[in-house]
Amino acid sequence: MFWTRPLGDARFDSWALGIYVLGLCCLGMLCCLGMPSHSEAQEIVRTDVRYVGAGELQGAEDEVDGVSLSTLEFRGAFTLPIVLQKSGTILIAGANYSWLSPSTSGVDGAAEPDNFQEVGVTVGAVIPFGPRWSLRAMFAPSLASNFEEASTDAWNFRSVAAASVLLSEKTTFSFGLVGSYQFGSLLPLPIVSIDWRPTASTSLVTGFPEGVQVRQFLGDRFLVGARLGLEGSQYFIGGSGDEEGFVDHLQTTQLEAGPVVGLRIASALWLEAFGGYTLYRNLNIFDGGNDSFLDAQLDNSFVFQGSLVIRPPMPPPEPEPASFPDD
After folding, report:
1. In this structure, what DSSP letter does residue 183 have?
2. Confidence (pTM)
3. Among 21, 70, 235, 72, which residue's Cα sits nearest to residue 148?
4. pLDDT higher than threshold 50 for residue 58
5. Radius of gyration, CA atoms only, the chain
């Protein structure tokens, strides 16, 4: 069983298992929050396969010298928007699952790390107030752990509350608060974003903390774009005890950027690919008393993500009104 030794005696292979645990904490929340109000179709199903290349751990411990880590990850999410025709309210129900397999190199005789998983559900609503304003709220509990043991510490409770206002027919401004509660602590974070859609096939979304995303649909079959995005997650480490002096849980933060391309291969099925590079990577590991044991950065590396996405086909553009020459 991994991660059962006191911190003072821990070897690198016992706590490095989760360095590349990449989840949907912030990104998944904002995907639900950012459901488009016009033009672009909502994603109903999304599956991602991600690979992050090896990067060397930079820390103060001599044990981490020359040690590199990479990760392979699968993520799946289902979102069902239900429109109440009378009021215009949109109810949101969904579920998500992620599986992550980290791999180490440069550690002689070290066993391969455990895998981590997260299972969660999402409920929420988008409530319109007049022609310009809307209120968006969401609650998303999940279990995130290596599932070595059952523990309430594996629960993560996330929520979003935000308001959106149409500044023009093409621009939406959103602001609010996103919060995450896990391991006895609450992490609130303000959110602000601008969604600009100059045409029915072009979108630019920028804000904090989601970053920047540009998308351009070429007809009804091709997609090109780019994104600069922040990802982060928390995982409980089962089987290591919950007392002070033992590794208990970890937090990760990653900033990445790169181009995105997509191809519609069926009526509502899209194949997308993202190839980029990390700009910042950080790991925090805590003991059972919620005291930080390690705060380290990782060397940057390349990221590849292949995705299958189901989104309803975009409606065809409205025909221009016919004009007739004057008699």
Report:
1. T
2. 0.75
3. 235
4. yes
5. 22
Q: What is the CB neighbour count within 10 angstroms for residue 296? A: 17
CA gap 310, 277 in Å, rounded: 26
Cis check for the bond before 209: say yes or no (omega within 30 of 0).
yes
CB atoms within 10 A of CB 162: 22
Closest CA to 146 of 113, 184, 105: 113
CB-neighbour burial class of residue 10 (10 A; exposed 0-12, middle 13-18, buried 19+): buried
Distance of CA 213 to the CA centre of its chain: 13
- The structure tokens listed for 159 are 């929520």
Tell me how many degrees the CA angle 218-94-117 measures, rounded to the nearest 5.
100
Dihedral angle computed from the Cα positions of residues 270, 199, 207 and 95, in that order, rounded to the nearest 10 degrees: -30
The average confidence (pLDDT) of the chain is: 76
pLDDT category at 62 given cuts 50, 70, 90 is: low
User: How far, CA to CA in Å, does 85 sit from each of 49, 88, 301?
Assistant: 36, 5, 47
User: Could you give the dihedral angle defined by the CA atoms of residues 168, 171, 175 and 179, in that order, rounded to the nearest 10 degrees?
Assistant: 150
Q: What length is written for the chain?
A: 327
Residue 128 CA to residue 122 CA, distance in Å, equals 20
| HEC secondary structure over 58-112 | ECCCHHHCCCEEEEEEEEEEEEEEEECCCCCCEEEEEEEEEEEEEEEECCCCCCC
Neighbours of 231 (CB within 10 A): 22
